[in-house]
Design brief:
The chain is an alpha+beta fold. It is 37% helix and 24% strand. It folds into 3 domains: 2-35; 51-241, Penicillin-binding protein 2a (Domain 2) (Alpha-Beta Complex); 249-542, 3-Layer(aba) Sandwich (Beta-lactamase).
């Protein structure tokens, strides 16, 4: 009996313990649910929710007259949440009533599946309660507008379960036209799968203006890793601002076409053509063409900014320097030897007929005792610093040493510089100098952007900027203008520009090229012309 009583006592005690423990568990569960429920639910959500970036719409780049040069085209990705209240209520009545007509509309419009196949796929996804069923991706706006009117879809998101994600793709409507100057805006993944931007041209220089500020959206991840947006948890992005350039589409088209025709004719490796408005420094056109392996040409690099030995077009700097210094006059006679038709040429004729001997003799007379002095004039003409144009990564000009100490070849380098070697400048540098002469000595800063707008409101305006009121004496400018007219009327450009209905002034140039993989021994030459028109009242300067 004592043993039986002892066993029963232990059983009763165990039972009471279990009952007490059960009450403790239930009490704890009640306490957690009642007083700590929000905390633990939020913690659970935090493990399955995440903020994702909402990309801001990139601003548009326009020509001066408002035509789109580069813009973001919206694309639409369509998903369906088959667990949406509007589809699941009343045992899916709305879905079943509309699935046939919806499948027929999809099949008739997209023509990629039959109506029966669409219906089967939709019913399978509905029966599985798929939360983020991918229906269509990368629809353009016109297609999306049609889709919005389909049965079921037109009832709205809450009833149809249709989720629309808007993305964008960068397009240049004019294709080749000024493509490298306008630039590219591309995104790519680096080795660590991180999103990176690859921008060039204006797209890069004004990236922060065009980009705007991204927003964010809270999404909840469900089975399979699918992310579903959480309603009411979204910060809208601030779209980028628009850029209005100085580019004139018609002038750019003419420039691009003329350059392409010439490149195809000579089969050159690359070429550039630039047009600048004389009074303002606005770049009205900038064309750059490089030859591809298949023989076609594309805007693959901004050759207008590449520094190379310019050849005879730099003789304008030499002419201005000797005239401004006063070491020679425009009518002074120079002995150039018997290589040409005449042994003696005036300074004006040395320039007009592009005499290397004549120009080097003028430079020797002016700077032979101090070759470094010519550098002061190149500095005065802004040929020793990067062009101030509103683009990034503009190369800096280079110049051979001009010192004569300890046997250094300063004198020889100075003479080479006088007719276009031993110095490297960009076509834009040369154009800016010629524009200053056309503008009666006033050098204007070259620029590509007129202003920035946000929703049609001007937020910043860029006006013409004077770099130098007078690059040299007015008499030297007048003499240089006369010499450039003589190039066209009687000099090296006479045949090429004969018969034009308006007067042109300028300078031809030919340079024996040594640039990168191309060496002097390859026998490659660079042909150039820089000029302005009309010669008496210049409006545009072209390179």
């Amino acid at each position: 009996m004592d043993v039986k009583r002892d066993i029963l006592w232990r059983v009763y005690l165990s039972f009471v313990g279990i009952v007490v423990l059960s009450f403790l568990v239930l009490g704890r569960a009640f306490y957690i649910q009642k007083f700590q429920g929000n905390h633990w639910r939020n913690m659970s959500d935090s493990l399955h929710q995440r903020f994702v970036s909402l990309e801001a719409e990139r601003g548009t780049i326009y020509s001066e007259d408002g035509q789109m040069l580069s813009t973001s085209i919206p694309t639409f990705d369509i998903y369906i949440d088959f667990n949406a209240d509007g589809l699941t209520e009343k045992k899916g009545k709305r879905f079943h009533e509309n699935v046939d007509s919806f499948a027929i509309s999809m099949a008739d419009f997209f023509k990629d599946k039959t109506a029966a196949q669409y219906k089967k796929d939709l019913k399978t996804a509905f029966n599985k309660n798929q939360r983020y069923y991918p229906l269509k991706k990368k629809l353009n706006f016109e297609t999306y507008k049609v889709f919005r009117e389909f049965p079921l879809v037109r009832q709205g998101r809450n009833k149809s379960g249709v989720i629309v994600e808007v993305n964008s793709k960068r397009e240049t409507p004019f294709g080749l036209l000024a493509n490298r100057t306008i630039g590219l805006s591309r995104e790519f993944k680096d080795a660590n799968n991180a999103a990176k931007k690859q921008n060039v041209g204006l797209e890069r220089s004004y990236d922060t203006v065009l980009s705007g500020h991204d927003g964010q959206r809270l999404v909840r991840y469900i089975a399979g890793g699918t992310a579903i947006p959480v309603e009411g948890s979204q910060t809208d992005p601030v779209n980028g601002k628009d850029i209005y350039t100085t580019i004139d589409v018609n002038i750019q088209d003419i420039t691009e076409t003329a350059l392409l025709r010439m490149m195809q004719q000579c089969e050159g490796p690359y070429g550039t053509a630039i047009v600048m408005e004389t009074s303002t420094g606005k770049i009205k056109a900038m064309a750059n063409l490089g030859r591809r392996s298949d023989g076609t040409y594309w805007e693959d690099d901004n050759y207008a900014l590449r520094v190379t030995e310019p050849g005879s077009t730099i003789k304008l700097a030499t002419l201005l320097a000797v005239l401004d210094k006063g070491s020679s006059t425009i009518d002074e006679k120079v002995y150039v030897g018997g290589a040409g038709r005449l042994e003696v040429l005036s300074v004006k004729d040395c320039f007009a007929h592009s005499s290397n001997v004549g120009m080097s003799k003028l430079a020797f007379k002016a700077f032979g005792n101090n070759p470094s002095e010519i550098k002061n004039y190149f500095k005065k003409f802004h040929l020793d610093t990067r062009s101030p144009i509103d683009l990034m990564n503009v190369p800096k000009p280079t110049m051979a040493p001009l010192s004569t100490a300890k046997g250094e070849a300063g004198l020889g380098n100075m003479l080479w510089m006088s007719f276009g070697y031993a110095v490297q400048v960009s076509p834009l540098h040369t154009l800016t100098l010629y524009n200053a002469v056309a503008n009666n000595g006033k050098m204007m800063k070259p620029y590509l952007v007129n202003g920035i707008q946000s929703n049609g409101v001007v937020t910043k305006e860029f006006l013409p900027t004077v770099m130098d009121e007078n690059i040299c004496k007015p008499e030297a400018i007048k003499n240089a203008q006369d010499a450039m007219r003589a190039v066209v009327t009687e000099g090296t450009a006479r045949k090429a520009l004969a018969g034009l209905p308006f007067a042109v002034a300028g300078k031809t140039g030919t340079a024996h090229v040594s640039d990168g993989a191309i060496k002097y021994a390859h026998g490659v030459y660079q042909a150039t012309f820089v000029g302005y028109f009309p010669a008496d009242k210049p409006i545009m300067v072209a390179h």
